[in-house]
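Task: sequence design from structure.
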């Protein structure tokens, strides 16, 4: 019954080929994030605000084989 029905989202899996030092979350005048770190995909839902956790659970199911496919391209 609300005015808004949510956002349409498109998710992409990418392979980062740089170094950690290449990531600069303060490159913008108004950064979106205050910190970053690498974590395993299975840890993501526990790091997300509760109302988005179901989405991240679904993404893990959808993208479950991406890390294996990326490693096999090396």
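Answer:
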């Amino acid at each position: 019954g609300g005015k808004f029905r949510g956002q349409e989202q498109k998710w992409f899996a990418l392979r980062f080929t740089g170094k950690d030092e290449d990531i600069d979350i303060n490159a913008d005048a108004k950064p979106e994030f205050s910190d970053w770190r690498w974590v395993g995909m299975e840890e993501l839902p526990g790091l997300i605000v509760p109302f988005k956790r179901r989405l991240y659970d679904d993404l893990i199911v959808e993208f479950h084989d991406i890390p294996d496919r990326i490693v096999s391209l090396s």
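The helical segments are 44-47, 53-62, 66-73.
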